Amino acid sequence: MNSQDIDLLKTVEYGGCSAKLPPAELAGILSKLPQMQHPNIMVDIETHDDAGVYKLNDETALIFTTDFFPPICSDPFEFGEIAATNALSDVYAMGGTPLLALNLLMFSSAQMPISVFEKILAGGQSKVKEAGCLIMGGHTIEDHPPKYGLAVVGTVHPDKLITNAAAKPGDVLILTKPLGIGVLVAAQRLNMVRENAYRNGIEQMKILNNFGRDVMVRHGVRCATDITGFGLLGHALKMAEAGNVSLSIKSRDLPIIDQADQLANDGCIPGASFRNLSYVQPHLHVAKLVEPHLKMLAADAQTSGGLLMCVPPDKVQDVLNDLRSVNTHTQASIVGEVLPKTRKSIYLE
Amino acid sequence: MHTIDTKGKLCPEPLIMAKNGLRDVEEGEKILVISDNETSFQNLMSFLSDLGANPVAEQKGEEYFVEATKPPESSEKAEKNPEAYCSVPGVSEPSDDYVVVARSCRMGEGDEELGRLLIRGYFNALKGMDNLPTHIVMYNGGINLALKDTDTAIALGELEDKGVTIIVCGTCVDFYRVKEKVAVGRISNMYQIANILAEAGHVVYL
């Protein structure tokens, strides 16, 4: 078989970040493990942040993270690019700079030509290079369908760390990339999506969150998270809980990838959206006039999604202007605000 | 009945098939969706409920049979355009959305103790009603109803779980310095409160 004929998307039922364990199950398992404590740990799993952070000294903290998943798209090189972009994103979400990376690859040479293996790694490497990060090696295991991702070490000044736990009532929520990747990929499997709309979705996933990180650092944003498998609602819930606040999200202001809106309205809603929604449900209030398909898009599992930032009101316009000044972030939008903590963590309106 | 067999299909296909099925029938007409996958079945139920199609399910062995009714056009319009909802009389749903406003922590004028008693009774009675308000808005002294350790906050929480949006005036919360004590509801600004009151079919002042 020639690698040109390989369609990686056909190897999996759930690809990309939708292949995560259900969030409720994961939380249950993690809560049973004893928590490790050390004075240098700045961020651990307790706040469900994007990465662990360890303070080396007063100048440098290490950000340590990993992410890997089965194919989200057909082309091996692009799968590599997207998986690497997604793994690097955790470092950017914490305000850091990726330094070193290791490849994590599961691949069966009995099932697929070895050239696919090469292309996945080459795609990953191209993004790692774009990020100014170095690949130091990696590990491969025989398995099918393939899974790929990175373990990444990044650095940040301890005083400039951005966490998901620093939301303050009055802050405005800005989302840097449009939602709907899960919908789009599900539609691609069913041949329901227009080629240019699908391409646009693939390109979105290849956009590094380094520009969003730069904007946050420039304007002193202290709270953010990246939106991946748990969807906007799932990651917003973690942010609300970590910061002991409530969030309001305006469904009509959500940036949506071209055609995903119509597809979701037609019923093209992947199972992961329902899983994410049922996880968030006890902590969510949905106002009566919210369109159901927008609620499901808010729960749509993203792969290599954008940053959700909490921006102080006086900096909102500058942050938004900066983001929209580049053609990769034209859909960056205000999507809600941070409220004092009450009974529900998220008000979708 | 228009029957849609989704056996052997995984999400989102059954949902797309059900949505198409609803397009093919008249308002008020029923469709039958068959599924043999528990997760797809649950997602179908949730999806059809969201569409206002009142799904009713029956399990026979490994198969699920879901009957859904095509909702009147007006309820779909309501989701997209609240203004249109007020002008188009619904067929099965109440034609008029309403908003309840609590201006103080008492109901009516007169004895204070009685007023408190009455407002507690009102929220408890509201919980059992079919025709719930879209919003309960609290301002000025009314915000005391939403504070921690009050039984009104518990009743408001139950109403919130039933889909009523509870709105607490943020300026009032700041004025009375009770930000830490608000137990229930979305703390909101006057712009949003003004919009809710302007869009309401009618407003019930307590």
List keywords for this structure.
A: 349 residues, alpha+beta, 60s Ribosomal Protein L30, Chain: A, Phosphoribosyl-aminoimidazole Synthetase, Chain A, domain 2, 13 strands, globular, B: 206 residues, alpha/beta, Translation Initiation Factor IF3, Hypothetical Protein Ychn, Chain: A, 2 domains, five-stranded parallel beta sheet, 8 helices, 9 strands, 39% helix
How does this model look, in words?
The complex is a heterodimer of chains A (349) and B (206). In chain A, the strands form two sheets. In chain A, strands 8-11-7-12-9-13-10 form a seven-stranded mixed sheet, sandwiched between helices. In chain A, strands 1-2-3-6-4-5 form a six-stranded mixed sheet, covered by helices on one side. In chain A, α4 crosses α5 and α7 (231-243) runs parallel beside α9. Chain A has two domains: 3-160, 60s Ribosomal Protein L30, Chain: A; 172-348, PurM-like C-terminal domain (Phosphoribosyl-aminoimidazole Synthetase, Chain A, domain 2). In chain A, β2 (52-55) and β3 (61-69) form a beta hairpin. Chain A is of the alpha+beta class and 349 residues long. Chain A has eleven helices and 13 strands. The termini of chain A are far apart. Chain B has 206 residues and is an alpha/beta fold. Chain B folds into two domains: 2-74, TusA-like domain (Translation Initiation Factor IF3, 2-Layer Sandwich); 96-205, 3-Layer(aba) Sandwich (Hypothetical Protein Ychn, Chain: A). Chain B has eight helices and nine strands. In chain B, the strands form two sheets. In chain B, strands 8-7-6-5-9 form a five-stranded parallel sheet. In chain B, α1 crosses α2 (38-50) and α5 runs parallel beside α6 (151-161). Chains A and B meet through α9 and α10 of A and α1, α2, α3 and β7 of B.
